[in-house]
Design brief:
Helix content is 74%, strand content 1%. The protein has helices at residues 4-16, 25-36, 42-52, 62-83, 94-97, 100-118, 123-150, 158-183, 188-215, 218-221, 227-230, 236-244, 247-258, 264-278, 280-301, 310-320, and strands at residues 87-88, 91-92. The chain has a two-stranded antiparallel ribbon.
């Protein structure tokens, strides 16, 4: 069994070795740029960890795993255009570094490259791998559409939000694990268990991001705290606050959401105080804990020795306690 760190090194070496040598350079340079500015590489590592539960030789799994990372970065590239985001991983986004047309076209090419890498899996796995990937890719798009629609709505419910993050974020973790299991020759039961493990892990991961954006320590979190508050982003915290608030508290929250000219630090402080008053931090942490518990239940049921699942258990523990 490979360790998480070993797989991280394998993934980075594969990414560093990708060739985008054909012209026009203007199409491929943004791909190299976004892949070169880092990231957790969690999704391709999950593909490899999952496959490694069932077989040792990962040589035929590495490139399809990289395909998942290329696909993930393609979605980030297009998301940044739609969100008009200026920064990604402390670097200018592709549309800022070049322009939106370049970002859209290079993103399109990245999605095709992702397919090229994914179909390099063994022929006997191709249909099952593509079935999982196609469903996952479509669901990611569905999640992004819901996210965009939520920006225009004031009546988003918690369950709607949870479904949106399931689609936009969590299914790609689940899909990565299931694809790895398929390529590792796991049976359908274990493949499905790993899928559900990944989805629940993804749900906890995203809800943690929401929480850390408000209550994390800036020096540890690595970015400005309160960005979601300043942009009125529909997160679990904001939606739960609206569902819970009444009377003057609801009026105050509404006033901060509708205010166009404000002091950023004051808005963060006031909205954060409302969240504390309404206990939405505790509501959020409770949901996070529930999802972490669920993902461990699914992992426990995967029919391989516990020792082989050690890296996945360690990953969950690390994410439970993360502060970034």
């Amino acid at each position: 069994m490979h360790s998480f760190k070993e797989l991280q090194e394998i993934v980075q070496k594969e990414i560093d070795g990708l060739e985008f040598a054909t012209p026009p350079e203007g199409l491929f340079e943004p791909m190299k740029y976004i892949l070169g500015i880092g990231g957790k590489r969690l999704r391709p590592i999950l593909v490899l960890l999952s496959a490694n539960l069932f077989k040792e030789d990962l040589s035929k799994v590495c490139l399809p795993a990289i395909g998942i990372e290329v696909f993930h970065n393609f979605t980030l590239l297009h998301d940044d255009v739609m969100d008009n985001a200026p920064i990604r991983r402390n670097k200018p986004t592709v549309h800022e570094h070049w322009n939106s047309n370049v970002a859209i076209l290079s993103g399109d090419a990245m999605s095709i490259k992702a397919y090229q890498y994914i179909v390099s899996c063994e022929d006997r796995h191709l249909r099952d791998v593509l079935t999982v990937f196609n469903q996952t890719a479509l669901e990611v798009c569905e999640g992004q559409q819901f996210d965009m629609e939520f920006e225009e709505r004031k009546d988003v419910k918690v369950e709607e939000y949870l479904e949106m993050i399931r689609l936009k974020t969590a299914v790609l973790l689940g899909g990565s694990l299931k694809m790895g299991a398929v390529m590792g020759d796991a049976d359908s039961k274990d493949s499905d268990l790993l899928y559900h493990f990944g989805v629940n892990l993804g749900m906890a991961f995203q809800l943690q991001d929401d929480l850390l954006d408000v209550f994390g320590e800036e020096a540890v979190f690595g970015k400005k705290i309160g960005g979601d508050i300043l942009s009125n982003k529909k997160t679990f915290l904001l939606i739960k606050a609206f569902e819970t608030a009444t009377g003057e508290t609801k009026e105050e929250l509404n006033s901060w959401i509708e205010l166009e000219n404000f002091n950023p630090e004051e808005k963060i402080e006031k909205v954060k105080a409302i969240y504390e008053k309404l206990n939405v931090r505790d509501f959020s942490q409770q949901r996070i804990d529930e999802y972490f518990s669920l993902c461990l239940e699914y992992l426990d049921k995967v029919n391989v020795p516990a020792e082989k699942k050690k890296e996945l258990y360690t990953l969950v523990k690390r994410l439970v306690n993360r502060s970034v």
